[in-house]
Amino acid sequence: MAICDLQHMQPNSDKDEHSEHSNSSEVPWLVNIYGNGRRCQGVILSSWWVLTAANCFLLMNPSQVELTGSRGRFSTNTVSQFLLHRGFSSWNTAPNNDLGLILLGQPADLRRQDMWPACIPKEQKPYDITEECRILEQSSNGEFESIPFGFSDIRKMY
């Protein structure tokens, strides 16, 4: 995973940081994965790799997958292979180890303004585990809805 400065991670300054909707260009590490009438999302890790849920691949063939960023297709439309976590169990049971990687057939052009890999900030700031984080979900119009998700929610789930 890349190292970046905090400026790299900031949304547009004219947006309220607690806004429920974000423009897709504010989350340039997210991609849409289309195939066999399904849509999943993934996170760009590098010019060669995209992280997603393993269940995304259950009905998809790598040769029929299209990846798009916030402003259209990747510079590559070739998926070389899907790699599933070795402990993944299908959706017939409670999903376990639901992690998958997409290896691209050629590197994506990450010099674009609207597309770059997820990164870890250089600055070491203490993380407050009681602080709320946000989960992004893309709507059909391309906007991302920001869903609050706090540490207390994790405790309730497990």
UniProtKB/TrEMBL annotation:
Limits of the Peptidase S1 domain: 22-135
InterPro entries given in the database record: Peptidase_S1_PA, Peptidase_S1_PA_chymotrypsin, Ser/Thr_Proteases_Immune/Dev, Trypsin_dom
Comp. bias intervals (Basic and acidic residues): 13-23
This protein's UniProt keywords: Disulfide bond
Pfam families, per the entry: Trypsin
Signal peptide range: none
Spans annotated as Disordered: 1-23
Family matches, as SUPFAM superfamilies: Trypsin-like serine proteases
Molecular function, one GO term: serine-type endopeptidase activity
GO terms, biological process: proteolysis
Family: Belongs to the peptidase S1 family. CLIP subfamily.
Full protein name: Peptidase S1 domain-containing protein
Organism: Ophiophagus hannah (King cobra)
Phylogenetic placement of the source organism: Eukaryota, Metazoa, Chordata, Craniata, Vertebrata
